[in-house]
C-alpha cells in the first residue's frame, strides 16, 4: 500500500509573499539562519520578491525556493536550495519552518526529505551542504537523521545574543542518499517524490472539482 | 609594504595581472580563488587587471598581496581579510607559484606576517584557512604553526575528472581570552 502524507514541496509563488514576509520578519529567522534584525519590512519584502522572481529561461538558476505545504496545515516552511554549482553538482540547503509548533515534528522531516530528494533526483546533484548552529538542536537532529555526515566543526564561529557558538557543516553525498532512499522505499513504498507529485495533483484536482 | 627577513609583502597591482594569472593556468583551483559556489573562474589577464585595480566583486577572492623575495621576484600571493565585524575572524590565504615554497622560510614568514596583521593589528579572535586535499605543503605549514583542523568537506570541488576534498583550518588569537 502506498504511503500517504499530507506534506508536499512546491515552488514558492508570488501568492506566498505575505506568508514568507511574516516568517522572515520573525526574530527566529535571523536567529537560526541569517539576516539583520534591523531590516525594515519593506527591505524584507523586496528581498523576497527578488528570491521568488523567476529567472529568464535561458539562464541557469543559482537558487530554487520551495514551500513545504500541507493539505492539512497550509504552508509550513520555506526551503532554499542556494549556491547551486552546476560544475561541482553541489548546493546548500537552508530550511526555515514558520509554523513553530511543527518544528520538531515529522512533517518537517518529510518536507526536508522531499527537498533532498529533489536536489539529488531532479537537479542531479552530487553533494548537498548543510550548515547548522550548535544551539539549534531540532535542526541537528533532523539533518543527522537525513543521513548527512558532520564534516566541519568551526569553534566559536558565530555570535548570537553576545555569545559565541560553533558552526557545524554537514555533507550528504549522492551514494549515501541513494542507500537511505532505497531503505525508505523498501519500508514505505509510494513515499518517493514522483508518487508525492501525483498525490498532490490528485488533491489539487479534487479541490478544484465541484462536488 | 611589509619587509621581513626573507619576504616583502606589498599590495598586488594591476601590473601584476600577468603574473597573477599563473595561479589560474595551468594550475589547480586554489580555495581562495573560488567563488561562493566553490566554482573556479577562468579569468583573462584584463579581468585580473580590473580585479587587482578595483578589488574583489562577486567572488570570495580576497584583497591580494604580492609575496616578493628579497631580490624583488614575485613568488606568490597572499591575503588576509577580516570577515563580518561581529564574527571577528580573518580569512587567510597563501598561494605560491611553487607549493614547495611553503616549506621554506618564505612560507613561514608570510604566514607569520598575516597572523600578525590579523591578531595584533586588527585584534581578531580567529584565523581561518582552507586547503585542498593536494595542498600538502600548505597544510603542513598551517599545522606546524598551530592551526587546528575544523574538518574535511568531501567531494566539494570537481576538476581534473574527479572530486576533491577541502579542509578548513583555524587558529585562535592567543592574546584574546576565549
Walk me through this protein's architecture.
The complex is a heterodimer of chains A (211) and B (178). Chain A has 211 residues and is α+β, with helices and mostly antiparallel strands. Chain A has helices at residues 17-25, 27-32, 41-52, 106-121, 137-145, 174-187, 193-208; strands at residues 7-11, 64-70, 77-85, 90-97, 127-133, 149-160, 163-173. In chain A, helix 1 (17-25) packs across helix 3. The longest helix of chain A is centred in the middle third of the chain and has 16 residues, at 106-121. Chain A starts with 6 loop residues before the first strand and ends with a helix. Chain B has helices at residues 17-20, 45-54, 105-121, 136-144; strands at residues 2-3, 7-11, 65-69, 74-82, 89-96, 126-132, 148-159, 162-172. Chain B is globular. Chain A binds chain B through residues 62, 83-85, 87-90, 126-127, 129, 149-159, 169, 171, 173, and chain B through 36-40, 86-89, 125-126, 128, 148, 150-158, 163, 168, 170, 172, 178.
β-sheet strand percentage of chain A: 25-35%
Cross-sheet strand order for the largest sheet of chain A: 1-2-3-4-5-7-6
The most extensive interface, with participating residues per chain, is:
A-B, 25 and 27 residues
Task: List segments of chain A where confidence is low: pLDDT < 50 over at least 5 consecutive residues.
Answer: none
The H/E string of chain A reads EHHHEEEHEHEEHH
Helix content of chain B: 10-25%
What fraction strand of chain B? Answer: 25-35%
Number of H- or I-type helical stretches of chain B = 4
Question: Helix and strand string of chain B, N-terminal first?
Answer: EEHHEEEHEHEE
Q: Which regions of chain B are unreliable across 5 or more consecutive residues at pLDDT < 50?
A: none
Total beta strand runs of chain A? 7
**Residue-averaged pLDDT of chain B:** 89
Helical content band of chain A: 25-40%
General form of chain B? globular
Query: Taking Cα atoms only, what radius of gyration of chain B do you get, to the nearest Å?
Result: 15 Å
Rg calc of chain A:
17 Å
Largest sheet of chain A: 7 strands, mixed
Amino acid at each position: 500500500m502506498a504511503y500517504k502524507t499530507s506534506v508536499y514541496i512546491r515552488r514558492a509563488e508570488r501568492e506566498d509573499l505575505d506568508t514568507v514576509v511574516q516568517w522572515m520578519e520573525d526574530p527566529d529567522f535571523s536567529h537560526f539562519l541569517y539576516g539583520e534584525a534591523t531590516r525594515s519590512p519593506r527591505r524584507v519584502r523586496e528581498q523576497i520578491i527578488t528570491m521568488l522572481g523567476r529567472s529568464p529561461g535561458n539562464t541557469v538558476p543559482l537558487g530554487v525556493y520551495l514551500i513545504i505545504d500541507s493539505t492539512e496545515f497550509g504552508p509550513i516552511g520555506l526551503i532554499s536550495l542556494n549556491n547551486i554549482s552546476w560544475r561541482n553538482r553541489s548546493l546548500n540547503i537552508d530550511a526555515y519552518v514558520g509554523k513553530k509548533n511543527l518544528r520538531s515534528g515529522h512533517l518537517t522531516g518529510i518536507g526536508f526529505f522531499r527537498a533532498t530528494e529533489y536536489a539529488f533526483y531532479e537537479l542531479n546533484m552530487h553533494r548537498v551542504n548543510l550548515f547548522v548552529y550548535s544551539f539549534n538542536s531540532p535542526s541537528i537532529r533532523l539533518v543527522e537523521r537525513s543521513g548527512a555526515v558532520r564534516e566541519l566543526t568551526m569553534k566559536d564561529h558565530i555570535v548570537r545574543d553576545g555569545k559565541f557558538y560553533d558552526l557545524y557543516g554537514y555533507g550528504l553525498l549522492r551514494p549515501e542518499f541513494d542507500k537511505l532512499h532505497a531503505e525508505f522505499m523498501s519500508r514505505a513504498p509510494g513515499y518517493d517524490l514522483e508518487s508525492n507529485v501525483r498525490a498532490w495533483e490528485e488533491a489539487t484536482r479534487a479541490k478544484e472539482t465541484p462536488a | 609594504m611589509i619587509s621581513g627577513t626573507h619576504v616583502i609583502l606589498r599590495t598586488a597591482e594591476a601590473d601584476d595581472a600577468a603574473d597573477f594569472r599563473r595561479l589560474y593556468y595551468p594550475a589547480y583551483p586554489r580555495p581562495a580563488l573560488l567563488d561562493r559556489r566553490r566554482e573556479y573562474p577562468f579569468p583573462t589577464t584584463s579581468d585580473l587587471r580590473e580585479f587587482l585595480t578595483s578589488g574583489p566583486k562577486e567572488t570570495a577572492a580576497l584583497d591580494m598581496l604580492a609575496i616578493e623575495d628579497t631580490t624583488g621576484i614575485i613568488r606568490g600571493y597572499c591575503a588576509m581579510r577580516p570577515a563580518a565585524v561581529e564574527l571577528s575572524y580573518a580569512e587567510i590565504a597563501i598561494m605560491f607559484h611553487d607549493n614547495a615554497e611553503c616549506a621554506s622560510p618564505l612560507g613561514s614568514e608570510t604566514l607569520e606576517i598575516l597572523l600578525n596583521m590579523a591578531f595584533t593589528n586588527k585584534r581578531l579572535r580567529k584565523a581561518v584557512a582552507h586547503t585542498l586535499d593536494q595542498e600538502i605543503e600548505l597544510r603542513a605549514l598551517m599545522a606546524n604553526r598551530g592551526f587546528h583542523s575544523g574538518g574535511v568537506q568531501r567531494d566539494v570541488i570537481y576538476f581534473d575528472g574527479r572530486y576533491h576534498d577541502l579542509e578548513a583550518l583555524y587558529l585562535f588569537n592567543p592574546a584574546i581570552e576565549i
